[in-house]
Amino acid sequence: MKLKVLPPTLRKNNRYLALDIKVKSVISKDDLVNIVWNGCIRFFGENGTGNFSLWVMKFYELEKTDEYNHYQAILRCQREYVDEVRASLALIYKHNKKDISVSTIGLSGTIKACQKFIEK
User: Fold this and answer.
1) Residue ranges of domains in the chain, CATH in brackets
2) Who's near 51: CB < 8 A, 6+ residues apart?
3) For the whole prediction, is pTM greater than 0.70?
4) Which of 9, 13, 24, 105 is the one with CA 20 to 30 A from 97?
5) ∠ CA(18), CA(68), CA(64), 5° rounding?
6) Torsion angle of alpha carbons 80, 55, 48, 87, nearest 10°?
């Protein structure tokens, strides 16, 4: 038996956040996933974070300088929890005892529109 696809009216609505990340160490996409999840869990707990439906869609490495490494990423979350996710990301300041800055530079309803905020 073939599984039925949910109609658009029953699907959860997603939003895509364009993130700007500056960190004093080298990170990968997996590190970013851990950073985002740990930041949200610290602020909202496991029960609240489970509702966010977080997913790192794209990860871009931009530049490396003597002071920091610059990355950008696209993060998916549910529409109802955008403010909570943004608050959690703003509270992240350390990763492996190194300074890190995660800020939101754009918000969109599609990945294609969110990529306009990303420098390539």
Assistant:
1) 14-117 (3.30.70.3250)
2) 78, 81
3) yes
4) 105
5) 85
6) -70
